[in-house]
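Postdoc handover notes: sequence design on the structure in folder B. Input tokens:
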């Protein structure tokens, strides 16, 4: 996926889709999120396929949510095992900010297809899931503190720590910038809250719109139109039937999520009467290199003033900063346990050698024992160096918004690209509420609008609903597979591509190679304009597998 970054930044979406399909050995939550995000950016005709893949991801997130809630209710032991778990599996536990953005992206897809009620469902789901995320984060903080106390009481792990500041050489400055420090948490997205309020307002739900607007203001008080929206909410809803203009929310996504890479650091740990160096691996999020603030966005003769409403780059840094205590405690504990085992094995080998020398016997077996002890420790320390750096890489880095009252009908949209090129196209705005979404790349942009006829799936005869496929559980994986992840240990297997969730029994026919989507029922959508659509079309690596211990033994004895 990292190798496809340049293709994506240049707006080469077809090759990005191919890279995603070739990079994933397992079609897990992350696969469906990556694929669904890029498909929607290919234009309105790909929105149905995008929606299907995002719904597949959403189904897996729902399973994760149920499993997490159950484990949080049952006991604290699961949280403790999470801290010492291997931290990597074929499954993918979504990061908190990714869960929020999945709901937001699905809501935007539903709006493109004129399904405002379905978008409102996504807005409600986002708030419900945040409760689980909050409980999860609190339990992890408590678990790290408890496990660290337990490790300090163990003679073999007394040097274990959860403080990244104790690991010399880690670039902590990448997680400690002003914007990251200012965030309340890593999952509450002001832009998503405002979109939620806007959707609820469009449906006349003042009691549901107000909390979304208030939370957006609480998280991002410097955004001026957030405050205007809450002040005018009641009058806007009261006068909805009298509106003679297009109430339009403009959403602009810019920039690219920085890579998260494995970063190796040599750290000294006390063993016996000496100290030994161990190479540890931690995730590091790279410095942002491409930021762009939309300088000029104009609709007709009206100039928009987009304001920064969400810094997703900083949310990712905040999330990693929150997870570092568990990463550090896990790595330092494993290093100390492994070094203690090596120290004991070395002493046993030396004692065996001394006894055999005293008996004038060949000490070859003693040397073999020492070699095996060293090999086991080397294999164990190699397992310590496995770190999970997967993330939703096709997300934007920043989101800007503006809200305007515009004339109903075709309107010329003009905007400046990051390359400095001025682009324009016609969008069609309907009476009532509209969303115009712009995703900017280096030298091109994708524009999607709500109620776009081109985004609606074609109709086809009713076909039988495919049965879900449940894959068999994975076999034993790695030295530390016994330490299962808290939230992955009992999670249901992810669906394969053919078993993506079906929203309705009616299945449209799609071109070969494009997943088939079944639209959800349309319930009281905004009127769909008959004018031309506003959107434009633009045109295998494997996960790390540690070496087999059995193979290593065979090589030694051969």
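Designed sequence:
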């Amino acid at each position: 996926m990292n190798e496809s970054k340049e293709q994506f930044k240049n707006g080469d979406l077809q090759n990005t889709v191919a890279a995603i399909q070739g990079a994933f050995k397992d079609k897990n939550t992350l696969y469906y999120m990556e694929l669904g995000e890029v498909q929607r950016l290919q234009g309105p005709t790909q929105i149905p396929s995008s929606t299907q893949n995002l719904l597949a991801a959403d189904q897996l997130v729902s399973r994760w949510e149920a499993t997490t809630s159950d484990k949080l209710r049952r006991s604290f032991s699961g949280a403790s095992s999470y801290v010492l778990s291997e931290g990597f599996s074929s499954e993918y536990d979504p990061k908190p900010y990714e869960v929020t953005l999945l709901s937001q992206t699905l809501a935007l897809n539903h709006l493109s297809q004129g399904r405002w009620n379905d978008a409102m469902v996504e807005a409600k789901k986002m708030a419900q899931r945040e409760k689980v995320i909050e409980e999860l984060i609190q339990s992890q903080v408590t678990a790290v503190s408890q496990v660290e106390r337990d490790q300090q009481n163990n003679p073999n792990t007394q040097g274990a720590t959860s403080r990244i500041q104790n690991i010399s050489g880690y670039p902590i400055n990448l997680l400690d910038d002003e914007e990251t420090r200012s965030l309340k948490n890593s999952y509450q997205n002001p832009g998503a809250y405002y979109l939620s309020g806007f959707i609820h307002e469009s449906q006349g739900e003042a009691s549901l719109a107000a909390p979304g607007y208030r939370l957006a203001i609480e998280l991002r008080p410097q955004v001026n139109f957030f405050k205007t929206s809450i002040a005018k909410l009641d009058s806007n809803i009261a006068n909805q039937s009298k509106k003679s203009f297009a109430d339009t929310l403009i959403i602009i996504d810019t920039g690219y999520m920085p890579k998260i890479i494995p970063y190796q650091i040599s750290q000294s740990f006390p063993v016996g009467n000496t100290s030994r160096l161990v190479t540890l691996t931690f995730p590091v999020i790279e410095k942002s290199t491409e930021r762009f603030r939309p300088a000029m966005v104009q609709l007709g003769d009206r100039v928009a003033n987009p304001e920064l409403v969400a810094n997703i780059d900083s949310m990712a840094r905040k999330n990693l900063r929150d997870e570092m205590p568990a990463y550090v405690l896990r790595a330092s504990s494993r290093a100390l346990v492994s070094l203690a085992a090596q120290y004991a094995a070395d002493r046993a080998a030396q004692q065996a050698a001394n006894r055999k020398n005293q008996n004038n016997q060949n000490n070859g077996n003693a040397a073999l024992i020492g070699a095996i002890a060293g090999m086991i420790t080397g294999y164990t320390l190699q397992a310590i160096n496995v770190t999970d750096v997967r993330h939703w890489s096709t997300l934007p880095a920043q989101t800007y918004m503006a809200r305007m009252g515009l004339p109903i009908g075709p309107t010329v949209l003009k905007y400046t690209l990051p390359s400095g090129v001025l682009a324009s196209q016609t969008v069609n705005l309907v009476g009532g509420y509209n969303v115009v979404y712009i995703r900017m790349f280096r030298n091109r942009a994708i524009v999607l609008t709500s109620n776009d006829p081109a985004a609606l799936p074609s109709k086809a005869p009713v076909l039988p609903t495919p049965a879900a496929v449940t894959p068999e559980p994975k076999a034993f994986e790695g030295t530390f597979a016994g330490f299962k992840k808290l939230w992955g240990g009992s999670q249901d297997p992810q669906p394969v591509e053919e078993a993506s969730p079906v929203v309705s029994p009616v299945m449209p026919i799609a071109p070969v190679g494009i997943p088939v989507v079944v639209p959800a029922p349309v319930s009281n959508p905004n009127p769909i304009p008959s004018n031309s659509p506003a959107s434009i079309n633009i045109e295998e690596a494997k996960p790390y597998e540690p070496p087999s211990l059995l193979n290593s033994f065979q090589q030694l004895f051969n």
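Context for whoever picks this up: The mean pLDDT is 78. Don't rerun without checking with the PI first.
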